[in-house]
């Protein structure tokens, strides 16, 4: 699910007065273009709308024009807020979260938990493998350095010998 994606032809209309119903909302927005759908989700306890609604236009351009003209306008003494709406799935379906039982997303929750656990396990394995590879690399480097030191002492470096001789001559 992508929570940031907006539906460019569906508008969220907030700040609705109690007396505004879907017919009034339709009448207010129809001058901007053909309307596909109007919804005012109801509060389950009061059976009244929750002071917001959704207007879906057939054309994106009409929705944009309606938003530009209606955002900040007044209806029944209340100032409207009009924005692009997020997909209904994000809000828990057409009727909102209140209409969904608490266990509605249990299956996907368990799947997400299992997926997250699997990701943590894979990350831990990868980290352990990286640490082991680094340890082996450092060990190899140390072994090579030891080999170089042994090589230096056995195969006398002509420059080192010349420096040693020069130092000996100065001190005597």
UniProtKB/TrEMBL annotation:
Listed Basic and acidic residues bias regions: 139-148
Gene3D superfamilies xref list: 3.30.70.330
Domain RRM: 9-87
Pfam families for this protein: RRM_1
CDD domains xref list: RRM_PPIE
Composition bias type Low complexity, residue spans: 155-166
SMART domains for this protein: RRM
Coiled coil: 112-139
MF annotations from Gene Ontology: RNA binding
Keyword RNA-binding: yes
UniProt keywords, alphabetically: Coiled coil, RNA-binding
Positions of region (Disordered): 139-172
PANTHER family on file: ATPASE E1 (PTHR48037), RRM DOMAIN-CONTAINING PROTEIN (PTHR48037:SF1)
Protein name: RRM domain-containing protein
Species name: Rhynchospora tenuis
Higher taxonomy: Eukaryota, Viridiplantae, Streptophyta, Embryophyta, Tracheophyta
């Amino acid at each position: 699910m992508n929570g940031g994606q907006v539906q460019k032809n569906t508008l969220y209309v907030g700040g609705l007065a109690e007396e505004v119903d879907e017919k009034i909302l339709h009448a207010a927005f129809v001058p901007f273009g053909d309307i596909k759908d109007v919804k005012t989700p109801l509060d389950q306890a009061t059976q009244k709308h929750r002071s917001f609604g959704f207007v879906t236009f057939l054309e994106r351009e009409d929705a944009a024009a309606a938003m530009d003209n209606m955002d900040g306008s007044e209806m029944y003494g209340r100032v409207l807020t009009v924005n692009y709406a997020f997909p209904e799935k994000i809000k828990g379906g057409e009727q909102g979260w209140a209409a969904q039982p608490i266990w509605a997303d249990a299956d996907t929750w368990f799947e997400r938990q299992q997926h997250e656990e699997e990701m943590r396990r894979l990350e831990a394995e990868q980290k352990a493998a990286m640490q082991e590879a680094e340890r082996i690399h450092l060990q190899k480097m140390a072994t090579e350095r030891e080999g170089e030191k042994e090589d230096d002492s056995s195969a006398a470096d002509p420059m080192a010998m010349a420096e040693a001789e020069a130092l000996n001559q100065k001190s005597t």
